[in-house]
Amino acid sequence: MKAFPMFLATTGRRIVILGGGEQAAQKARLAIRTDAEIVVAGFEFDDELRALAEEGRLRLVDAHEIHADLFERAAITFVATGSAGADGALHALAKGLGAPVVNVVDRPALCDALTPSIVDRDPVVVAIGTEGTAPVLGRQIKTAVETMLEPRLGALAALAGRMRGAVGQRLAPRARRDFWVWVFSGPVRRAHSSGSERRAAQLLKARLEEGPGAAEGAIAYVGAGPGEADLMCLRGVRRMQEADLVVHGPDLPAGILELARRDAERRVAPDPVAVALEAARDGARVVLLAPGAGRELPQALSEAQGLDIEHVPGIG
User: Fold this and answer.
1) pLDDT by residue (tens digit) across 129-152?
2) Which among 233, 275, 276, 230 has a CA at the least distance from the CA of 253?
3) Which of 66, 134, 220, 287 is the most buried (most CB within 10 A)?
4) What EC number(s) would the UniProt record show (predicted)?
């Protein structure tokens, strides 16, 4: 990667837009979704920008009033005049006056940060970047993601945020993780996405009142396939994202492990089946990665008692 993906904090900060035409208005439409103070500096202003200023959603200043204090609390400064010459001059001015992060529209070489394509389900936000190389591809990916995420998903995330403190107080870390997996992949999400937000909240709170049961160990025996991460089957990826422990032999390609949940333990073992069984009996959720398709379930797993054993063959 040539750019590190991250989200900029905007609370108590300012977003500065240099320019007053349509290109500046496009950036303003994006910026007003945040809680930042929006300041647009230019000589003449688009009607849309004037309307937003009248509504109190941003502030317009004359470009002659561009001084260093304009950038003191700036999370990011956009240069968006639509003129290559003016953009270059304003970029130099902003950097000279101390603007820490500057984005010049359609000029990747002058950008400290790149603006991604965004799927907005506030507070759930998905950002898709191509490092400025293929914005059309970025928009195509955005369209695909838009169809995957239901319109009400942000409201469900907000509900979860309001309940996060109560869940943290009542449940241990493993139980918390199991609880949120249940919320976002079970009846709560289904009820919420169908418009029954009250029912979703009732289900969530009722499950929390019940409290956790004993942790039940589980093993997913997942075929790693040819060893390429993009050839792992979808169910296998899901199990790796849910696992507490990923166990594998020494001959597994390292790229597959990038699919696992970041805080899951990874363990290389000469006898990975034995390690997986021991961990599962202690209540862990384990993915046992097998090289190749993994079409034959090991006998020790097929004979295991009291454990949830799932066989997820890979591509042969």
Assistant:
1) 998 888 899 999 999 999 989 999
2) 230
3) 287
4) 1.3.1.76
For residue 155, how many other CB atoms are within 10 A of its CB?
A: 18
Residue 302 shares a structural domain with residue 270: yes
Token pair of 71 as six digits:
């950038």
Residue 305, domain extent: 218-312
Q: What is the mean pLDDT of residues 179-196?
A: 89
Q: Which two tokens stand for residue 226?
A: 């040819």
pTM confidence score: 0.68
Q: Which CA distances in Å does 4 have to 134, 142, 167? A: 17, 19, 32
Rounded CA gap, 289 and 252, in Å? 8
H-type alpha helices, the chain: 22-31, 47-54, 84-96, 135-148, 153-170, 173-185, 187-193, 197-210, 234-242, 272-281, 299-302
Q: What is the pLDDT of residue 213?
A: 63
Query: What CATH number does residue 252 fall under?
Result: 3.40.1010.10
Q: What is the pLDDT of residue 42?
A: 96
Is-contact 93 105, C-beta < 8 A? Answer: no
Angle at 178 between CA 177 and CA 183, to 5 degrees: 95
Same domain? For 21 and 49 the reply is yes
218: alpha, beta or left, given left = phi > 0 and alpha = psi -120 to 50? beta
In terms of domains, do 190 and 252 share one?
A: no
* Structure token pair of residue 146: 């838009």
What span, in angstroms and rounded, lies between the C-alpha atoms of 21 and 25?
6
In a domain, 131, yes or no: no
Asked whether residue 111 falls in the same domain as residue 21, the answer is yes
Determine how many CB atoms are found less than 10 A away from the CB of residue 281.
Answer: 15
Q: Which of 289, 281, 285, 291 is nearest to 316 (CA)?
A: 291
Last residue within a domain, chosen from 68, 91, 115: 115
